[in-house]
Design goal:
This protein has about 450 residues and is of the alpha+beta class. The chain has a domain at about 10-130. About 30% of the residues lie in helices and about 30% in strands. The chain has 10 helices and 26 strands. The protein has helices spanning about 65-80, 110-130, 210-225, 245-270, 300-315, 320-330, 370-380, 400-405, 410-415, 430-445, and strands at about 10-15, 25, 35, 40-50, 55-60, 90, 100, 135, 135-145, 150, 150-155, 160, 175-180, 185-195, 205, 225-230, 235-240, 270-275, 280-290, 340, 345-355, 360-365, 365-370, 385-390, 395-400, 420-425. The strands form 8 sheets. Strands 19, 20, 21, 22, 24 and 26 form a 6-stranded mixed beta sheet that branches. It has a 5-stranded mixed beta sheet with strand order 6-5-4-1-8, with helices on one face.
Length: about 450
């Protein structure tokens, strides 16, 4: 890269809404397909180039993507654009009103077709963006919102349940990054915020980008520039809303509230920062899994654990032999679980870091807890850092050591949906944080 090199940026967007009657994912008790499209799901690609390196960001309106799908998209993109696999960050908004994004050899043909089409569309968006490169500069700012609440409520009997915890940690920071044309006009606005897109309840059967879609449309109307949403560390956060008959009204309200906070941050003024050089790095963090043992001391499979939980909780009268069939229908997924060096199984989680001048984007392929993402942003060796969750795959919930001690849905029950043999080791968050910070330090020297 020459001393005079400047940033060039290209953008593209495509619709990725699934076909009619596709099964929507995000809640465990949806057993029927979608009834229509409320608002379109999209994938928005941003390609950046500094004459020496090319990186790309792909923001997708999906709950999450399986690592196999990410690998397929990266392979196509690398062949067509010169963006290396470690330089493509695929970030999901985590909407709970979109389709499942994985299919295996035993999956139904319609599921495999849906995933094949999705891979083609995602790769095509990055390719199209790489063909629209033009000079750009970078500016950053930070605001605040109050749309999220901690959801790990502690009951009087000591149990932690999904609810509202007024004392729970919430990162309320709103990150705003703008790419600008040489004349100062906005080209693209990146919005980073941690809040579950789960305003619409399990009763909803219509496809929707949820509140991020509302926010995105409002910001684009106000700025005239493409808006990309980066979901933060929202593993233990929910929107400040109780499900009811006003879910769609609340979704619009929350989306507009975030858009108003973006507008206020823009009005306060963004700080121009260096936009080059570009760099990228990624690593696999092997997360050890603590196997669950029954009363007889024997290691339980996830199916046995799930059947016991479902029967014990009175939610579904599911016999043990039926659990796998139910999960395969409701949440088809296959983890990359493998034997670990200490005899326990482990699951590799991707950690990625992109450098764009003075800005670092740090991502986890997990539902990372708010305090973890906040700590990474505070401690990273970069002038400005954004944390991105649900990126490049998803291994499940990455909880704090304190949450492991408390238990609850994210720690004890969610591994069932992700087909993991047990809960992650309590030290997983520290391990992932350390490797994330190392990656940023490597990129920023």
């Amino acid at each position: 890269m020459s001393p005079r090199s400047t940033l060039r940026a290209g953008l593209a967007r495509t619709h990725i809404s699934p076909p009619p009657r596709s099964y929507l994912i995000g809640y465990g008790d949806r057993l029927r397909g979608s009834s229509g499209v409320r608002d379109e799901l999209t994938a928005t690609a941003l390609v950046l180039d500094d004459d020496a390196t090319r990186v790309a960001l792909l923001c997708v309106d999906m709950l999450c993507l399986h690592e196999d799908v990410v690998a397929r998209v990266r392979e196509r993109v690398a062949a067509g654009t010169g963006v290396a696999p470690e330089a493509l960050l695929i970030a999901c908004s985590h909407t709970h009103a979109g389709p499942i994004a994985w299919a295996g050899p035993r999956s139904a043909p319609w599921r495999r077709r849906l995933v094949d089409r999705l891979v083609a569309k995602l790769a095509a968006a990055v390719t199209q963006a790489s063909q629209t490169l033009a000079p750009a500069s970078l500016a950053v700012g930070r605001g605040q919102t109050r749309v999220a609440v901690s959801r790990r409520e502690r009951r009087l009997d000591g149990r932690v349940v999904l609810g509202v915890s007024p004392e729970g940690f919430v990162d309320r920071g709103l990150d705003v990054v703008q790419l600008r044309d040489p004349d100062g006009a906005p080209r693209a606005t990146l919005v980073g915020l941690a809040c579950h897109p789960a305003v619409l309840s399990p009763r909803n059967r219509r496809v929707s980008a949820e509140w991020p879609g509302v926010m995105r449309a409002e910001v684009e109307a106000a700025t005239g520039a493409t808006c990309l949403f980066l979901q933060g560390a929202t593993g233990d956060l929910n929107p400040d809303h109780v499900w009811g008959d006003d879910d769609e009204i609340a979704m619009e309200r929350i989306g507009r509230s975030v858009a108003d906070a973006v507008a206020a941050t823009l009005e306060a003024g963004l700080e121009p920062v260096a936009s080059v050089p570009l760099a990228a790095g990624r690593a696999e963090v092997p997360l050890a899994i603590d196997l669950r043992r029954g009363d007889d001391g024997r290691v339980e499979s996830y199916a046995e654990t799930g059947a016991r939980r479902l029967r014990g909780g009175g939610r579904l009268p599911v016999p043990r032999f039926a659990v796998e069939a139910l999960l395969r229908y409701a949440y088809p997924w296959r983890p990359r679980q493998r034997p670990g060096p200490d005899g326990r199984p482990e699951l590799p989680m991707e950690v990625q870091a992109l450098r764009v001048g003075d800005l670092a984007l740090v991502s986890h392929a997990a539902e990372t807890f708010s305090a973890i993402g906040h700590a990474i942003k505070q401690r990273a060796a970069a002038p400005h850092t954004l944390f991105v969750g649900y990126a490049n795959g998803c291994v499940g919930y990455l909880a704090t050591a304190e949450a492991h001690a408390e238990g609850g849905y994210e720690v004890e029950e969610a591994p069932l949906a992700y087909r993991i043999s047990g809960r992650f080791d309590p030290g997983s968050a520290e391990q992932a944080t350390r490797r994330s910070l190392e990656l940023v330090a490597e990129l920023f020297g």
